[in-house]
Amino acid sequence: MKLPNIKHAKLNVFIILIIVSSKSIACDYMFEVNNAAELNQLNSDLILSIIKAESNYNCKAVSPKGAKGLMQLMDSTSKKYRVINPFDAKENVSAGSQLISMLIRKYNSIDVALAAYNAGEGAVSKYNGIPPYDETVQYIRFIKLDFLKKTGLELTMETALKEKIKSNSPWSRFAAVSPWKKHAL
Description:
Elements: H1 6-28, H2 30-40, H3 44-55, H4 75-80, H5 89-107, H6 110-119, H7 121-127, H8 134-151, H9 157-160
């Protein structure tokens, strides 16, 4: 009988741990994400893709430009959405989701809304669309690819807005349940 190579066994366990730990990190915030998705009529997988791009699920992340938390809120955005603690997952995801929902509806374009979220509405106005910044172009590409991996669907207006789609994601089973909703008996 041939024994398995210990080096390969350790590597396989390490890879499995990385995959499981990244999914469990996302799972830590599913209640907040699903609540924000429901309130803002967004697909929860879009919010998760933005969080992954912005902070890689690190609620204590701070960018060199001063953006904070899971969805990397600037101080002006935190003030606008009355965020007291940008490192609080509930407040941060709520405000970031309100912002992306507003941007999607304002620009009627996923790509332009993501560009505005990343580079700012001023940059989108200046260039009358997606600014020619490498960071912004890569940001849009990353989110669209991550969304595709999560759902098997292309990121479009229809797939981003929750009222028009039922998610194929395995995360959808963690749907938030509000104690204030009346449930049919």
